[in-house]
């Protein structure tokens, strides 16, 4: 997955490079807008290897937001905590405390 994200990031850098070369040839007629800023962000996230994780977290966040808007209950946790049991007393003496001198 990281290879694909990196590939997308470098592809975005290539596209940005082509846009900048054309802008310099046309005496800097490039306009900085939202698509260009998103492309720079995509290139950075892709090259650094965070694109797959970013996409998964974005999808999960949108799903949670839609669920809250629709009033659906939260999904159960993947790894619920184990039920706690009372500790049984040990058969031997307790280990000495590391705090302060012992008598």
Task: Walk me through the structure.
With 103 residues, the protein is mainly alpha-helical. The protein has a domain of 69 residues. 57% of the residues lie in helices and 0% in strands. It contains 3 helices and no strands. Helix 1 packs across helix 2. The model has no long low-confidence stretch (mean pLDDT 80).
Percent of residues in beta strands: under 5%
Rg of Cα set: 27 Å
Broad structural category: mainly alpha
Runs in which pLDDT lies below 50 for 5 or more consecutive residues are none
Major β-sheet annotation: none
Helix content: 55-70%
Q: Could you give the distance between the termini?
A: 60 Å
Overall body shape: elongated
- List the secondary-structure elements in sequence, H or E: HHH
Instruction: Calculate the mean pLDDT score and round it.
Output: 80
Per DSSP E runs of 2 or more residues, the count of β-strands stands at 0
- Tell me which oligomeric state these chains represent: single chain
Number of helices: 3
């Amino acid at each position: 997955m990281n290879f694909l994200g990196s590939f997308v990031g470098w592809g975005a850098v290539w596209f940005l490079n082509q846009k900048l070369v054309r802008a310099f040839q046309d005496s800097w007629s490039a306009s900085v807008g939202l698509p260009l800023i998103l492309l720079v962000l995509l290139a950075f996230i892709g090259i650094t290897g965070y694109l797959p994780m970013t996409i998964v977290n974005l999808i999960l966040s949108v799903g949670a937001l839609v669920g809250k808007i629709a009033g659906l209950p939260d999904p159960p946790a993947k790894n619920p905590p184990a039920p706690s049991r009372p500790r049984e007393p040990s058969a031997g003496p307790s280990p000495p405390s590391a705090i302060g001198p012992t008598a």
